[in-house]
């Protein structure tokens, strides 16, 4: 059976930076550690005046196609995952295709285009769609272009404001990939939840405590479901575990839960039992509250062990390095976690050929998906082609007053007339409004 997976990827971050410790925290009257230690974030990325989900997605896609020497005739499918769409009918993929047609002689008229929505998990669902399309033999030797693009903007003074971010990830899905091969096994955890939603509104309504609990519950279900089809899981089976990362602090909680689950019945679990005791079992407690208190006490002890901390440092921490600098990208967050982990491996000379990743995606509302990926020879060249470090370094750093201005620019309800902070160059840019209220774009050389 021919391997199908991600052949290559590109990342595009918003061109503005808000430093959380030096700029945001003082303006909010907060201790910088609330953000750098509690949330695990150092900075957020924002789109400039001429940037939005279309330009970021189109710029990532164009870089990817140009680097791989592709033309529209090579692409049979364009799927965009976003929860920042501005049209309830016309998909963002058509706008992005229109942008790309400005720089190619051919068009995408014979490519299937769509838009996926299920909060942050829709980027992974779009990968699944592309994988299934190729597996079904419907691709006619063409590849799929999957783009996750979002501007995660919160209302001013909302508790989630510090987690904001903006950027896009473009992924080429094809046979015989050069980055990772996707597994056929998947696990799901899904329930009707109201942890985070946007009912006909731009800014999310979030029940913060509930959102954390729902994230962890669906992740646990997905991991259990994955083990049903993939077999027993051991902590040493996977080189890294990229999680959906709304902020790194959330991943700390999910990683502890996941580790606690996968060591059960293993040699690692036996060693942990000798060190901190056996994991609590519900049957041993009279009430749920007693059981949950015991689980919390056990998990706290687990995360303090040297064995767990070594596992976390090698398996989880490398996947968080991009997110710390750019914030939450919603549909793209788990995919920049994958890129960050592989980038760390390349920079440290790790040989990951045929090693495996366990990818844990999540979307509020709510659903989690867990699947495995095999890293294939060629991954180092593909990861080495990314320019995300340069993009992060070159962002324009906002003062707090400038942040307030750019927030108004991207707030659909606010009136603003702000000059751009940077100049577009060799990229797509917003170019005003059309006669039917549509957004228009042009390529700026």
The topology string of helices and strands comes to EEHHEHEHEHEEEEEHHHHHHHEEHHEHEE
The average pLDDT score comes to 96
Could you give the count of β-strands?
Answer: 15
| Unreliable sequence segments | none
Question: How much is the radius of gyration in Å?
Answer: 22 Å
From the N-terminal CA to the C-terminal CA, the straight-line distance is 43 Å
Q: Count the helices. How many?
A: 15
User: What's the story with the biggest beta sheet?
Assistant: 8 strands, mixed
Proportion of beta-strand residues: 15-25%
List keywords for this structure.
Hydroxymethylglutaryl-CoA synthase family protein, transferase, three-stranded mixed β-sheet, globular, HMG_CoA_synth_N, hydroxymethylglutaryl-CoA synthase activity, isoprene biosynthesis, 445 residues
Outline:
The protein is α+β, with helices and mostly antiparallel strands. 38% of the residues lie in helices and 22% in strands.
Describe the structure.
With 445 residues, the chain is an alpha+beta fold. An eight-stranded mixed sheet has the order 5-4-6-7-1-8-12-11, sandwiched between helices. A three-stranded mixed sheet has the order 3-2-13. Strands 9-10 form a two-stranded antiparallel ribbon. Helix 4 links the parallel strand 4 and strand 5. Helix 3 crosses helix 4. It starts with a strand and ends with a strand.
